[in-house]
Amino acid sequence: MELRSARADVIALSVVVVLGALFALYFVLPLAGLGARAASDGEVWELASSEAVRSALVLSLWTSTLSTVLAIVLGTPVAYWLARTNVRGRTALDALVDLPIVLPPTVAGVALLTAFGGQGLIGGPLAEATGIRLTFTAAAVVMAQFLVAAPFYVRAARSGFAAVDQQFERVAYTLGASRVETFLRITVPQARGALLAGVVLCWARALGELGATLIFAGSLEGRTRTMPLAIIDAFERTSLGLSGAVSMSLILLVVAFVVLVVFRLATPGTSSR
Amino acid sequence: MSSLRYDARMRLGPFEYDATFEADGEVVVLFGHSGAGKSLTLQATAGLLTPREGHIEIAGRTVFDSASGMNLPPQDRNTGYVVQELALFPHMTVLENVGFGVRGTRADRERQARLLLERLGLEGYEDRAPGSLSGGQRQRVALARALAREVPLLLLDEPFSALDESLRRTLRAELLRLRADLGLTVVFVTHDLREAHLLADRLAVFDRGRILQFDRREEVFRHPVSRRVAELTGVSNVMAASVLARLEGAIEVDVDGLVLRVADPAWHPAVGERVELALRAERINLRRGTPAGLGEPNLVEAEVVEEHAYGAGHTLRFRPLGAGPHLEVDLPSRPYEVLGVQERRRWTLELPSEDLHVMRPSEGSTSTGG
């Protein structure tokens, strides 16, 4: 009896190991492919230092960072309110915030056009009154990234705040701390792990944004062509070809990896959820 | 000038909450089952929820008054509020926790926090995380944090309920010492009868959002105003009775055919009036011999029909041999053994006339205690 169950354990363990190995292999192989290509193709390194790649990288980094900052500034109050309120309609608002997560980014791009485009709801009157056109500008890149990525931060922050027992805040109030002080000194530190996880998710999503940006901001070199767009572009049209795509992919990979590692190091004891 | 004058009304689930009491340099215990409105009272006092109407004064200062629209936020109410879960800030050290509410510079905060930690016997734990402390130590840190602001009023919401009995005993004693040292007014919420008895100067008995009785502790325990208060405060024998005669300094009542004399009744009901009678189980004496032979009033011959042994004593349930109610008697283990209750089942019970307490019948109460 005991022998039999021990044997079953061994079999189960073997299955787990094999499945895990397959899973890991599948993730490692594409990376290995990129590395192999880079090693064998001399052009890859040359292209990495080209002006087109440099400008795309710079644009990608500052737009994704800015849209993440906007998500924090505009999204934190909403997340806190969603975590604490019980009013009717909260569920609907919850769903509304989550909507861009399930929406295909191309749909988000089209929606942005209808709102902020030259003939859009806001965009039309804005262009008439001030001459300002948002489409095909770096601002449009940030707007596209913000719409698609901010919900990831709000979602994480909301569950992070909800996990902080309100009793802490109530006690802090009786100890003389104002609502703002309580939020900053009691609530945020306890929700830190979730908040940082949300920031990473949001930033990563903004960095990888493609569909909404392409439709709303276009792919103008030096102005709205972020790294993902440049990769598509290189792959499809230009002389850079696969070597260019590989080179930019490697750069993005390294940047993303470095950011993740730095974040992990900067936040000991918190695991991203 | 009272430290706390409290009067508030609001909705509490299915009940209407309505409570009025005061506290002045003493420990007032709010006692009752959970959901009766005790914690709500502390929250309304601390400013964490707003009653529909009422008036609350802390240390002579009005902090809430529905008539004038006055409603100070919790930050300005100057109360030390300790909750059952303690809510020690997990991301701060013990020292930072205790100093959190202290006004002034960082140095001020640290000095005051160290002072309080010393007072509560927590020197050496300044830099520890709250999570690494024992239950009793955490409890002390929560108290120290509440006291560090030098508040006149301490609000404690079942603070000891998560601790084991020996630790609770130590902390209760410590609380009473602190109260005396600092001249604090303490409002203490508990559903533990022994804790209520041990700590209270005055006792407010809560039931379904109402204070049934607010009085000095002994008064509540000896002279409950109603069957409900008697039951809540652990009176095992509550009996329906009717008044037979009014005598000098006493009345005679009939309980299920048994005539009992009640000395110095709390009020003087008319002959024929229905009343209720309370008698604590530990006040009944066991005697050998028969009532006829003893020739005194308030004696009942009865036999043990049920028996429960607790660590410190025995609870015996008696059935009368003649007319009369069933009675519950608590007997400490020593007299239980000396008297030989184990072997002898028939006893004469003495119901001391000065320990019998008459109460007005509650509305709709029909059952007899037996």
Notes on the protein architecture:
The complex is a heterodimer of chains A (273) and B (370). Chain A has two domains: 40 residues; 221 residues, MetI-like fold, CATH 1.10.3720.10. Chain A is an all-alpha fold. Chain A starts with a helix and ends in a 7-residue tail after the last helix. Chain A contains 13 helices and no strands. In chain A, helix 7 packs antiparallel against helix 10. Chain B has 370 residues and is of the alpha+beta class. In chain B, the strands form four sheets. In chain B, strands 7-8-9-3-10-11 form a six-stranded mixed sheet, with helices on both faces. In chain B, strands 2-1-4-5-6 form a five-stranded antiparallel sheet, covered by helices on one side.
CATH topology of the largest domain in chain A: MetI-like fold
Which CATH-level-2 architecture of the largest domain in chain A? Orthogonal Bundle
What average pLDDT do the residues of chain B reach? 91
CATH superfamily membership of the largest domain in chain B: P-loop containing nucleotide triphosphate hydrolases
Question: What is the CATH fold-level name of the largest domain in chain B?
Answer: Rossmann fold
Helix and strand element order of chain A: HHHHHHHHHHHHH
How far is it from the N-terminal to the C-terminal residue of chain B, by CA? 46 Å
- β-strand percent of chain A reads under 5%
Q: Specify the number of helices of chain A.
A: 13
Number of strands of chain A: 0
- Which term fits the overall shape of chain A? flat
- Note the main sheet of chain B: 6 strands, mixed
Name given to the CATH architecture of the largest domain in chain B = 3-Layer(aba) Sandwich
How are the SSEs placed, and which strands pair?
The complex is a heterodimer of chains A (273) and B (370).
Chain A: H1 2-40, H2 43-48, H3 51-84, H4 90-102, H5 105-116, H6 123-130, H7 138-162, H8 166-174, H9 179-190, H10 192-207, H11 211-216, H12 227-236, H13 241-266
Helix pairs in contact in A: 1-13, 3-7, 3-10, 3-12, 4-7, 5-7, 7-10, 8-9, 12-13
Chain B: E1 4-12, E2 15-23, E3 27-31, H1 38-46, E4 53-58, E5 61-65, E6 70-71, E7 79-82, H2 94-99, H3 106-119, H4 135-147, E8 153-157, H5 165-182, E9 185-190, H6 193-199, E10 202-207, E11 210-216, H7 217-222, H8 227-232, E12 237-247, E13 250-255, E14 258-263, E15 274-279, E16 285-287, H9 291-294, E17 299-309, E18 313-320, E19 327-332, H10 333-339, E20 346-350, E21 357-359
